């Protein structure tokens, strides 16, 4: 799954490097965010966080005179929108950061993700499915019907076909024999069932 799929459709909050720190703080308050993209010529120039304001501005009594460019972080670890969730998690772990700005290949800001939001949004994208293996039988009246053999609950972010493959592997592993059925039926579940397979 690419990071662009996890970003919300809400506009990215930006601030100019020439803005004063009070303006940046008000933007954070008004948009209920702890970080803003600092942009120059439409490209990411840095990031300013609520911690930057406290540690580099308030603590040094610069709140009224400082500009965003004076206290922003300019060496910013970023990810591209077409990178995967796993790559983003590796960046967060490698650099020990709490927020990961996401940009496009022209370095236009797309959004900010945290490790918690990555995990929560990735989980929300997964589709809980009930996969039932069945045999086709004919009753005494000659009418065909499906006889359920085994049901497996699968949580998958991909297609129903992949979920069927996962279910077949689970049954093969449990029974230690090749999976044999006439077909597999899937049903979307309203919420994640107790037994899941990732």
TrEMBL record:
<dbReference type="InterPro" id="IPR000644">
    <property type="entry name" value="CBS_dom"/>
</dbReference>
<protein>
    <submittedName>
        <fullName>CBS domain-containing protein</fullName>
    </submittedName>
</protein>
<dbReference type="InterPro" id="IPR046342">
    <property type="entry name" value="CBS_dom_sf"/>
</dbReference>
<keyword id="KW-0129">CBS domain</keyword>
<dbReference type="Pfam" id="PF00571">
    <property type="entry name" value="CBS"/>
</dbReference>
<feature type="region of interest" description="Disordered">
    <location>
        <begin position="179"/>
        <end position="198"/>
    </location>
</feature>
<feature type="domain" description="CBS">
    <location>
        <begin position="7"/>
        <end position="65"/>
    </location>
</feature>
<dbReference type="InterPro" id="IPR051257">
    <property type="entry name" value="Diverse_CBS-Domain"/>
</dbReference>
<feature type="domain" description="CBS">
    <location>
        <begin position="72"/>
        <end position="129"/>
    </location>
</feature>
């Amino acid at each position: 799954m690419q990071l662009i799929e996890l970003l919300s459709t809400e506009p990215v909050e930006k601030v100019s490097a020439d803005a004063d720190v009070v303006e940046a703080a008000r933007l954070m308050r008004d948009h209920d965010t702890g970080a803003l993209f600092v942009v120059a010529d439409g490209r990411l120039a840095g990031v300013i966080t609520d911690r930057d304001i406290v540690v580099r501005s308030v603590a040094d009594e610069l709140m009224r005179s400082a500009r965003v460019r004076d206290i922003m972080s300019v060496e910013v670890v970023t990810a591209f929108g077409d990178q995967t969730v796993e790559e983003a998690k590796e960046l967060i772990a490698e650099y020990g950061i709490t927020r990961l700005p996401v940009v496009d290949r022209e370095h236009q800001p797309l959004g900010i993700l945290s490790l918690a939001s990555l995990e929560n949004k990735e989980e929300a994208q997964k589709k809980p499915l009930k996969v039932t293996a069945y045999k086709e039988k004919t009753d005494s009246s000659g009418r065909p019907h499906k006889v359920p053999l085994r049901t497996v609950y699968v949580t998958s972010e991909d297609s129903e076909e992949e979920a069927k493959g996962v279910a077949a592997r689970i049954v093969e592993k449990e029974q230690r024999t090749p999976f044999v059925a006439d077909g597999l039926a899937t049903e979307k579940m309203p919420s994640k069932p107790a037994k899941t397979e990732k």
